[in-house]
Specification:
Elements (H helix, E strand, L loop, with lengths): L1 H16 L3 H8 L2 H14 L4 H25 L3 H8 L3 H38 L3 E4 L2 E4 H18 L11 H13 L8
Helix pairs in contact: 3-6, 6-8
Length: 188
């Protein structure tokens, strides 16, 4: 019993000291990221390692620039841009570019999460597709979209599910993918 108590205390101390890293990682590493990275690794091996190194380097530079702007100006980047650009036409163009970037980034992020969720469902239940001429409709896309819309609608009308976010669908599909993945025979 002493060993179990000591282990639980050690685990509790470790959880209290890990910081926000796991939360940030969970926010950015979704089923889409896992799916794309797995497929790229299988298809290209180490040939795309250079892209990861370049993206890490560029991300570090951008983050350092933002931190320096914040420390020197005591403002965030949007406040600095707002105070430095005086021309109203440039302000409208800049706001439009920022909104387009936010929309495109969110669309790409959610598309990756939904595709990862679809891969998990297809692993568990097989494909669910309907062919209409040259167009193929994936039933799991509709299912995930319907569940997400329903949860969002319920939240708008005042009922908030305990899961809290439509992204739980993708998270469960990722768990299904991980739990049910099996080694497939190599193609010859």
């Amino acid at each position: 019993m002493f060993f179990l108590t000591k282990t639980l205390n050690h685990l509790k101390k470790w959880i209290n000291n890990i910081g926000p890293g796991p939360i940030i990682a969970a926010a950015f590493i979704g089923p889409g990221t896992v799916t794309v990275c797995t497929l790229a690794g299988v298809k290209f091996g180490y040939a795309l390692l250079w892209a990861m190194l370049v993206s890490v380097f560029v991300t570090i530079i951008l983050q350092l620039m933002v931190v320096r702007i914040g420390v020197v100006a005591q403002k965030d980047v949007s406040e600095v841009i707002k105070s430095e650009i005086k021309n109203p036409l440039f302000n409208v163009i800049l706001i439009g570019l920022v909104l387009i970037a936010i929309f495109m980034g969110n669309a790409a992020y959610e598309a990756g999460n939904i595709s990862g969720g679809i891969l998990g469902l297809e692993t568990l239940f097989g494909k669910l597709e309907w062919a209409m001429g040259n167009f193929t409709l994936n039933g799991y896309s509709l299912l995930i979209g319907f569940i997400s819309f329903s949860l969002r609608f319920l939240k708008v009308v005042g009922f908030s599910p305990s899961a809290g976010s439509p992204l739980w669908v993708s998270s469960y599909c990722r768990m299904i993918l991980i739990c049910t993945s099996r080694k497939r025979p190599a193609h010859t």
